[in-house]
Specification:
The chain is mostly helical. The chain is built from 7 helices and 2 strands, in the order ααβαααααβ.
């Protein structure tokens, strides 16, 4: 048998086996709807693409922070159960290249015992509060899908980004 006919025979067997296997699917799970996907498609880029509607101020964020964040992160973000004992201190001023990252992380993970439970307005408010605590925005600056991507983080240029800046 020639190499060409061996290949053709193998290809035909593979295609027919694939057809047989696809007919015997295990029928696990259920189809995913667009509504289901929207609940999990919450990625936010550095440029703010994907930010939801809503807004919040540092004053509003302080209230949410005191109710839902202070136990773990300490008063005014100065420590708590999660404070490091030694080593360099990481904070939003030196460790986060984009303000949208704070929103994205907070929305996905906080509070730790009920992740994704904060409303969009609460997440914007907590983000504004954290930025104001670090003197990155003013105490009266509101954060929203329009304003948050424009916040310039202090150490933004200290990172190598796979998302090049738009000029």
């Amino acid at each position: 048998m020639s190499m060409r006919s061996s290949f053709a025979t193998a290809a035909a067997l593979t295609l027919s086996a694939g057809t047989v296997l696809s007919a015997d699917k295990p029928d696990l799970g259920q189809p995913v709807s667009e509504a289901d996907i929207v609940l999990w498609d919450i990625s936010i880029g550095p440029d703010g693409v994907g930010l939801p509607p809503g807004s919040g101020t540092p004053a509003q964020g302080r209230v949410v922070y005191e109710q839902k964040c202070e136990t773990c992160h300490g008063k005014d973000g100065q420590g708590g159960r999660n404070a490091r004992l030694s080593g360099p201190q990481r904070h939003v001023g030196n460790y986060v290249p984009h303000a949208t990252t704070i929103f994205d992380y907070t929305r996905r993970t906080m509070p730790w015992h009920q992740p994704k439970s904060l409303t969009n307005d609460e997440v914007y408010a907590v983000t504004a509060y954290i930025l104001a605590l670090n003197k990155i925005i003013g105490d009266s600056d509101a954060m929203s899908a329009e304003t948050l991507p424009r916040v310039r983080m202090p150490n933004r240029d200290g990172f190598i980004s796979k998302y090049p800046e738009k000029h």
